[in-house]
Structure formats: structure tokens, C-alpha cells
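Entry 14. Structure prediction run on the chain below.
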Amino acid sequence: MSNVTIRKLQKEDLENGFLHTLDSLRQASNTDKKIIEKTFEKINSNQDQIIIVALIEGKVVGATTLLIETKFIHNGGRVGHIEDVVVDKEHQKKKIGEKMITYLLRHAKEQGCYKTILDCTDNVKPFYEKLGFKHNANALRFDHV
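Output returned:
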């Protein structure tokens, strides 16, 4: 397997496989370019949100997001929320997801998070449990559409 590089999303990644990779979660590559650029700028300016990407031979093949929430409880403690973990279908089963999650967990700890949480479906639960996550509660969702 080629070497995998994990780093923060950069603007040039938008046209270098990032949006195509997100298509594995939900169609993103056909989103208007102005919306994509505006979204990138908004996320990039938020110190409590980071998107990281996995690259092989310079092309984005994976991505995930960490949001950091500051709490009034736990003495102003911080909680990491992992969202939108995705690896391009052609590159799954190569430990790329594991490398991205490990990177984000380290980043969350460096940012003072006392815990990091995520929601997932039952079929990927063993993947996260292998990385040290434990079942804690039930997730519920309300759609505003």
C-alpha cells in the first residue's frame, strides 16, 4: 500500500478528490462551486472545527470532521464530536479510517477535550470499538426538512 498522509483540509483539496470522496456519504461533487468555496472559508475560519483528509499519492481518498464544543459543565470542559467519516470505496480496508480517527483523537486531546463522541450505524460499530470507543447511549435525530 502507498503511504497515507493525514492532514488538515486545504482549499486545493476541494478539486483533488475531497468532494468525490464525500459522494460515498451523500452526493457532494455536484454542489455549486461558490457554495463549496463559501463553506470551506466558513469552516476554515472556525478554530473549533477541523476537517482532515487522507491522501495517497497526493489525491484525497478519505476525510472526517471534528467539532469541539465548550461546556459550562466540567469546569468549562470541551467535548469532541466526530462527524462524516468517509474513505473512498476503492481504498477501504487499508486502515485509512483508523489513521484518521487516531489523528482526530490526538487532536481532540491536545485541544483539551475530556471525551470524544460519535454516532454510527451498527454495521461499523466494531470498527470504532476496536479503536477504544464504547457504547454509551442511544442517538436520536430530528430532521428539519
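The chain has a mean pLDDT of 95.
Filed with the rest of this week's runs.
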